[in-house]
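User: When convenient, might I ask for sequence and structure tokens for a protein?

AI:
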Amino acid sequence: MYQKVFVNIWPWWAGGLAIGLFVFLFFKLTGNALGASTGYMNICRLVLPTRNHPFFSKTNPFDWRLYFIGGIILGGFVSTALAGDFT
């Protein structure tokens, strides 16, 4: 079971179903939409000189979405390291 879930590559349809189910459950449990676009906007607000731009003033740059984006990036590196193949 461990090998099938955590090591082998999932088929595209299983990955899509898992992501869709997680997004739906996240919305039902927290009331927040799960998406990466606001997280990217938070990164732009922190990195780029956008302090006076009205589009970027709508969000708090350190809300949970910034950590969500960081988790996506870090999770990719961790899963690749655990698989033992960086190619």
